[in-house]
Amino acid sequence: MDEQQRSLDWYGKLHTRRVDLVGDYAGNELFVVEGDSLLLNCFNDPKLDFDAGFQLLHAVYNVEHFLQNLRQRRCNFHIVFFEDHKSLCVPPKAASHTTSKFLLARAAVKRHLEANVADLTLPGIELRTFKSTSDEAFARYLWTTGVYFVMCHDGAFNNSTQASSISDHRINGSAPRDEFERSRKARFRGMILLLLSWGYNIALINGLEWHDTKVMTEVVEGHRLQKYLTPLITGHASVPTESPSSSPIGDKPGFDHVHALQSLQHMIQNREISREHGDSHEVHPEKWTQRRYIITIAMDMMLAKEATQRTLVAAFLEHAALLEVVPLASRRLRHAIANAKSTSETQHFIDESASIVCSLLQDNSFYRILKSTAKCDLSDLLDGRLFSSVLACPEQLAAPRGQTKAIFEEYAMALDHLSGNHIELLKSTKPATQSTESQFIEDQRLGSTILPFSNHVFDKHLAPIKLSTSPRKRESPEAGRIFQEVSHWHNARRPLSKVAPPMTPWEKKKAARKVNFFMAEMQAYAASLTNATGSSLEPETVTVGPKILAEAQLDVAKENAIPTKSKSSKPEQSSKSKNKPSKKETREKDMAVKRAEKDDLEANKTLAAWQIVRKNLEAEVTPARRHQKLSDYLRDRSDSQQRVLGAEIRFHMICDLVEILKGYGPSSPEIEPLSIMALLWTSIRKTVHTPGLTKTIVNSLKAILDIFHLPQIEMEMPSGDRAFAYDPKLTLPRDNPPVNPHDDLRFQLLYCGPYMDRNLDSAPDPRVPFEPDGWQRAVLDELDAERSLFIVAPTSAGKTFISFYAMEKILRSNDENVLVYVAPTKALVNQIAAEIQARFKKSFKHPGKSVWAIHTRDYRVNNPLVPTVGNPEKFSSWLSDIQESSGRKLTTIQHAHRYSDLRKFIYRPPKKFAFNGLSEQTTFGILGLDNIEDLAFMHPVASLVNRSRGMPPDLSLEARDCLLLYDAMARHQDEEFPVRDSLSPTSNLRSKIVRKADIIQWEAALKEVLQKWMDDENSPFSKVVEDLSKPLYGSKEAAATEKEPSNGESVASGNTLIRQSDSETHSLYRTTLPLLYKLHERNALPAIFFNYDRSKCVGICGALIQQLEEAESSWKESNAGWKTKLKGFEQWKKLKAKADSKKPAKQASKKKGNEGDNIKEDKMLDAQSDDSNPYAGFDPEDPVDGYHFANKSRAEASELQDYFKELRRREVPEMLLTGLMRGIGVHHAGMNRKYRQTVEVLFRKGYLRVVIATGTLALGINMPCATVVFSGDSVFLTALNFRQAAGRAGRRGFDLLGNVVFHGLSE
C-alpha cells in the first residue's frame, strides 16, 4: 500500500464534531484559512461559469462574500497560500481546457486581496504566502502568531454535513474518478494530517454553513491524535502534484515582458504615446491601472504568437474598454453564440489569454514593478460574456461609444508603440435595419419584502453585523397572513396560549395533585440550599413598606449615621433636674439590669453545655478529628454564645494543632508540618481578636509562636484572668520540635496565602447581614437610588446577594411590581425559584398571587432572573445607550478579584493502579493538591506559552504564585531587563501581617513588568516560563520512565482488572478512579467532573460503578471478617424469623412449662433487637465502606429510599440509582428533571461527593465543591466556559482555596 492510500485510509477513520465556530469554539481566537481551500470552495459554485462565459468578477465576489461573512460574525483570521498548491483550486468537474482560467482567477484573487484587503471593511486580516506546508517559515509563523486552528478543504465534495465520520465512501459514494482527483485529495489530507500531528485542530471549509450569526462546520481535534500521526507524515511530501501548464512568457524568443512593462510605463507617464499610422490622441496616465498594463502586454504577446488574431485582439481591447464604461447592472448578458467555429476560436483565445495573464501575475519581479505605479483593479480583468458579445453584435451593447473609442485608442496606441501592431475598432457586420435580440437579461428579482429598520441607539452597535437571515421557503399561500406567535421559537411541542377545554373534576384533581407534587419537590429543593456560611436559609416574611431593622442593624446604622444638629434645641435643665433621673431613664436602667441577668443566665447555660460537649470529645483520640468537630461546633454557635465561648473554643482547637505537630515524625508521613503551622498561625491571629481573651490564653499563644518560630503577632494583655470552663491541658514540645525554616514574610507568602485577610474596603452596613466590600456597598447605593446597574465581577466574588436585595425591594414596594430574572439554563431557573421560596414569604391582599413564578419553553408554574455576559464592555456600551435614550443613567461597577483563589494542577495517571478500597485516614490541614504523586502544580504564568496571544486580562496570581514569579524573574534578569528592588516582596509588603489587598497591588506591579518582557523577543520571558514549568516537566519525565503496557495489556489492580486502551474515552474511564482516590486522600472532595459529552458523563459513572463493584466483590471473597459477619447476619435473621413466628403463641399461652426453655433465646433476641446490634441496620447489598464515595452521615436511609421510589416511578435507569448509592451522580440537560434535582440536593447536603456533569452546572448553580476536574477535552471548553465551570471550586464562604485539575487534556 502506497503512502497516499495509507493516508487516505487513515483519514477515513477520523471522527469530527459539528460546532458553531463563533459561539462554541473559536470566539475571537485567531485561525488560518488555507487559501486554495477557500478558492476551491468558492470556485465550486454551480452558478459560476468558467466554461463559455468566463466572468472573473463573479469568482472574486464569491471569495469576498465568504470572507465578509466570517468578519460579520467577528471571526479573527489570516489567509495563507502555498505555492505548491496552485492546481488544487480547480474544481473536480471543471473541463480540462478551463484550468488556465481557474489559475488566472487564483492569481487575480491573490493579488486583489494583497492590495485591497485593508479596504474591504476587513480589518485585522493578513495574507501570507509560503512555498509549502513543510516550509520552516510556515511553522515559525504558526508558532509566533498563536494560531488556534486551520480551516481547510479535505478534497471531498458532498452536500451532507451531518455525519460524524469523514470517510471516503460517505463523502464521494464512489472511488476517485482519476489520478488527479486522488492526488488532490491526498495532498489536502496529507496537509491535514501534518497539521494534526503538530497539535493544530482542523475546521473543514467544505460543508460550512451560515446559520444567521452561526458558522456551522465539522472540526477535527488535533491534540487527541498527535501521537498517532507521526508514522503517516512521511508520505506527505512525496505526494505528486500536477503542475500548471508551462509558462507561455518565453514562447517569443528574446521577449522581455519586464522591459516591455517598464517601457510602456515610461511612455504613459511622459504622455509620449501616439499612433505611427494615424492621428495622436490624448493620454491620461492617472487612468492607466494594473488592468490596462496587463491587458496591453498580454495582447502584445498574443499577437507575437499569432499575428492573424488581430480581430480577436481588437475585440478583447474593446471588451476591456467596455469594462470601464459599462455599469455593472448593464452587464447581465446572455452568452452570445455566432457559430461553432467562431466559438471554438473565441474560447481558445480566452484560454490562451488567461494563461498569459496568469503567468504575468505570478511573476513577482514583474508585478513588483507594476504595483509600484498603478492601482490594482484586477478583480474585473476579464468578462467572457462581454467579450463574446463584442464579437457577435457590438452594436447591441448599450455603452457610450465616444468613451469606449477613446479608451480603445489608448490601448491601440500602446500596442502600436510596443511592437508596431496596428489595431482598429471593430465595425458591425450586420445591416443597420436588421433587428437583433437584446443580449441583456431583464432583472426579475423581487423587491424587498422587509421594511428597513433604523434606530439611533441600535445602528451604532449593529453596524458591523447587518446579517441576512437564513432563507425560508413559503410553505403555503396562507403563509402571507399576519403572523401570530402560538409556540416558542425553540419548541413547537406546546402552544404558549391556547384556550383549553373545561376540565372534568377528575382532571382538576389530577392537575392539583401534580401541582402539589411539584411544590413539595420545590420545598425540599429549597431546604437543601445554604447561605454563604453554609447554614440553611431561613425565610424572611416580607411586608409592603420599609424594612424594620433588627437591634444589631440599628446599632450599625447609628454608628454609620452622620450626626446632625437639632433645629430646635431645648434649654439646659437646672442642676437639680439633672441629678434626678427621669421615669424613662429609670425604666431603661431596670431593663438593662434584667437584660444583664438574662445574659448571665444564658452564659452559664452555654458554659455548662460546652463542658459536656468538650468532655464527650475526650473519647476522640485523633486530634485532627477533634479539631474538625470543634470547628463545626463553633460555627453553629450564635453570636452571643461565641462572645462567651469563642476564645476558649479557639484555644482548644489551637491545642489540637499543637498535638498534631508533636506527633510529627518518620512514622507519620501524612503530616506536612509547614501546612499545619500555617493553620496554627492563622488560628492564633484570629483568636487574638476574639472577645473573652484571658492572660492564660495570651501567654500560651506567645509561647506557641516562639517554640515553632512563627511570625510574631501583636497581642494586648487582658487585665483579668479566669479559669477555663474545661482545661485543654496544653503541653508544648521540648525535644526537637518541627520549626519554621523561613523568614516571616516568605512563610506567609508560601503557606498562608489562602488564610490571608480578604477584606477589600469592608465595612458594616445595616442593609445586609454581612460586612460588604466597597464595590458591594456601591451596588447597594445604586439599587437604592433606583438607577440601572451593570456589574462585572468574577465567579465567587459575591454577586449573589445583589439580585435578592433587588427582589426584596420589589416585594416591599407594592403587590404589583414584577422583577424578571433571566437565566440561561432550566437548572438555574429551578434553583432560583427554590431559593426565592427559601428566602422570602409574603401575604398578598388578593388571592392568586405568589412570590415567584416560572416561565420556560417547557412549563410554567404559578401563572407567570441575570445572565452571564461574555463581552461586558460592548454589552455595557449598548445597554448604556439604551438607558440614556430613555432618560436613565447606567452605572457599570467592575470588580476583578475572586474571594478564594484557584490553584491549578495537571493529572498524569499512573500506568498501574491497585485499588483496594479508599483509605480511612485522610490528610489534615493541607490546602491544595501539592506534593501528591501524579499531580503536578501548574503556575498560571506557565500557561503563557505563546507570546502572540498576550496575557489574559483576568490572569490571577495568589500570594505563592507572586513569590515564585518574582524569584524566577530575579534568577533570569540581565542588564537589559533588570528586576528593580522596588519589585521585591520586602519593598511591596511592608506590614508584618500580609493582607490580600497587599498581594493584589504587588501582583499588578509584577504583571506590568512581565508584560514588557512578554512583548520583547530579546527578554528572558521564555526562561521565566520554562523555569515556572519545571513542576510540569518533572512530573512528565517521571511518568515517561515508567514501563508502558502494550496495547490491550491488562494490569492487575488488587483483584480488579483494569484494561489499558489507547482510546481517550477508555482512558478517562480507566483513570478517573485513581484520581478520585488521590482527591479522597487529600480530603479534596466533593468534586465536580466536567465533560461536555453527555454519553461520556454517563460512561464515566458506569465505569466507576463497575470498578468499585469488582473491587468490592474481590474484597468480600478474600476477607474473613466479612464472611464471619455474613454468617452472624444469617443466624440473626433465622432467630428473628423464629421469634416472630412464636410471638402470637407466646401471648396466648400462660403455661409455665416451656418458659425456662425460652428464657435464653428471648434474651438473645432482645439483645439482637437492641439499637446497638450491628445487624439491626445491616444490609449485605449496600456498598461496603471504602468502596463508595457517599457520606452516609449526611442523609437518612429513609430519605434515600423516598428519593429512589420517586426516581423508579419515573423510570430512571438502575445504574444511575446504583451510582447515587455509591456517592456518584450524573448531571446534564438530557437527564430526568427529578433525577437532576435529586443530584443537586444530595450534593449540597454532602451525601454525594462526586458529580460528573456537562456545562449545565457551570452557569450559576449553587453547588460549591472543593475541586473541579476538567475530564477530557472538548471544542465546547472555551475560555468563558472554563471560567464559569472552574468557579464552582473555592466558593466564597465555603473554601479558602479551590482546586482545578486538568485530566485527559492536551498539554
Q: What is the SS-derived class?
A: alpha/beta
Number of strands: 25
Counting H and I runs of at least 4 residues, what is the number of helices?
Answer: 43
Question: Which spans have pLDDT < 50 for at least 5 consecutive residues?
Answer: 159-176, 234-248, 250-254, 429-438, 442-450, 472-493, 561-576, 1035-1062, 1146-1153
CA distance, first residue to last residue: 33 Å
Helix fraction, binned, reads: 40-55%
Shape from CA axes? elongated
Q: What's the story with the biggest beta sheet? A: 8 strands, mixed
Rg estimate, integer Å: 41 Å
Mean pLDDT: 77
Question: β content, as a range?
Answer: 5-15%
Question: What does this molecule look like?
Answer:
45% of the residues lie in helices and 8% in strands. With 1307 residues, the chain is an alpha/beta fold. The longest helix is centred in the middle third of the chain and has 35 residues, at 583-617. The protein is elongated and about 125 Å long. 32% of the residues are buried.
Q: What is this structure, in a nutshell?
A:
Helices cover 45% and strands 8% of the residues.
Write the layout of secondary structure elements.
Elements (H helix, E strand, L loop, with lengths): L2 H9 L5 E4 H6 L3 E5 H9 L12 H17 L3 E7 L16 H18 L10 E4 L5 H10 L3 E4 L15 H4 L7 H19 L3 E4 L4 E3 L2 E7 L9 H4 L23 H13 L20 H16 L4 H16 L14 H23 L1 H10 L10 H9 L8 H19 L38 H5 L24 E2 L2 E5 L9 H23 L12 E3 L8 H10 L14 H5 L3 H35 L5 H13 L3 H24 L10 H15 L7 H13 L36 H8 L22 H11 L3 E5 L7 H14 L12 H14 E3 L11 E2 L4 E2 L10 H14 L4 E5 L6 E7 L27 E4 L20 H14 L12 H4 L7 H20 L5 H8 L1 H11 L9 E4 L2 E4 L4 H18 L5 E4 L3 H25 L1 H29 L6 H14 L28 H13 L4 H8 L2 E4 L5 H13 L4 E4 L13 E5 L7 H8 L10 E7 L4
Parallel strand pairs: 2-3, 2-5, 3-4, 5-6, 11-13, 12-16, 17-25, 21-23, 21-24, 22-23, 24-25
Antiparallel strand pairs: 1-8, 6-8, 7-8, 9-10, 14-15, 17-18, 19-20
GO molecular function, one term: ATP binding
InterPro entries: DEAD/DEAH_box_helicase_dom (IPR011545), Helicase_C-like (IPR001650), P-loop_NTPase (IPR027417), PIN-like_DDX60 (IPR055124), SKI2_subfamily_helicases (IPR052431)
Keywords: ATP-binding, Helicase, Hydrolase, Nucleotide-binding
